[in-house]
Every structure is written in C-alpha cells, then in structure tokens.
Amino acid sequence: MRNDLEPDHVPAELLPYFNTHRSSYLFAAVTVLVWVAVAIPFVVGLGALLAPKSKTLSRAATLLSAGGILLLGFAMFTFVGAFIAIVAAGDLAPTAAEATYQATIWSNLSFFLTDPGLMTLGAGQFLFAWLAWGSGVLPRSVSLVGFIGGLAGLLTLAVYQTSLLALVQIGAFAIWGIATGIVLLRHKPGPLA
User: Fold this and answer.
1) Domain span holding position 29
2) Dist CA 30 CA 100 (whole Å)
3) 60 assigned to some structural domain
4) Is 79 a domain residue?
C-alpha cells in the first residue's frame, strides 16, 4: 500500500526523503505492528459472533482476514525495514546510484508486497459481510460497508489503484471494528453451556 510518507519524486530523491522522515516511517511500522496485534483478535471475535450463521464460512472468513492482516503487516514492516537497511548501508554502497537503484526497486515492490495481503483480507471481509447480511447480527448498513471494503481489497491488483482501494478497505475495516464493538457492548451474554 503506497502511503503518504512516500514521495512522488524521482528515484534520486527517495533516500533523502526517507532519511529526513525516518521517524515517521518508524512510527508507521510500529503502528502497523500494533494494528496487527489488535486486528487479529478482532476478526477472531467477529468470526465467533457470526459463526451461528455458518461455521464453515465464518472460519474461512476468519482465516482469510487474519492471513491478510499478517501478510499486509509483514509487507509494510518489510518495506520500512528495507529502506532503513538501504539508508544504513548507504555509505557502503559501491556507488550512490546503486543505493538509489535499490530504493527504487523497494519503492515499486511495495505495491506487490501489499496487494496479496489486501486481497486476502478483502476476501475475508467479503465473507464476513455475506454472513452479517444473512444473520442480522449487524445492521445491514454495516454489512454493506463490509461488501465495499471486501470488494476494494479483492480489486487492488486487478485495477492497480492500490492506494485508493487500500484506504477504502482499511476505512471499511475500521467501521466494522467500531460497529462490532458497539454490538458486543450491547450484547447480553447468555449462560455458559
């Protein structure tokens, strides 16, 4: 996923830009790790909430969503780590052009690193939306947001608008999190079986 921290500049400006904004990139990497640690238990809880409709689809949605979250988190962390390594080894590169070349490769690879995670998470979101739509556990408007987010994730590689679609998808995921939290807070727990 291309983020606002990445410049739309010529390749020679990538490393100086990254070096100047290194703390922002490190903050983004830590934020991604925190998101992964919070999002995976969320999808497990969402899967349990929607399991009465279909245990098989709920498990598939949980596995796809959790797998997508892990892939996306790994991709983002790897992208930041690669730039940190290139900047750290910049003085040791045979030429400045070599370091710039490597930075350009990693900058362009960021799309291909993030797309599998976005697509896998999108498939999970779409299945969760399907389950929520049929179960009535969540409002239909929330299910619709899930369909939109899931479809955005599934299309990231096909239409090559990764940045925009990723924002739609992650925004939909955030709305799902808030709505599900409200539903769970209002839910009266039943007796333990």
Assistant:
1) 11-186
2) 25
3) yes
4) yes
Which residues in the chain come in under a pLDDT of 50? Answer: 1-7, 192-193
Q: Where is 64: in which H helix or E strand? A: helix 55-88
- Euclidean distance between CA atoms 140 and 46, whole angstroms: 15
Both structure tokens of 43: 């999808």
Grouping H, G, I as helix, E, B as strand and the rest as coil, residue 190 is coil
Question: Helices 55-88 and 96-135 meet at what angle, rounded to 10?
Answer: 160
Side chain identity at residue 154, one-letter code: L
| In contact, 106 and 85? CB cutoff 8 Å | no
CB crowding 169-179: b at 16 or more within 10 Å, else e: bbebbebbbeb
Cβ neighbours of residue 8 closer than 8 Å, sequence gap 6 or more = none
Evaluate whether 147 touches 126 at the Cβ level (below 8 Å).
yes
Under a CB-based contact definition with an 8 Å cutoff, are residues 162 and 156 in contact?
A: yes
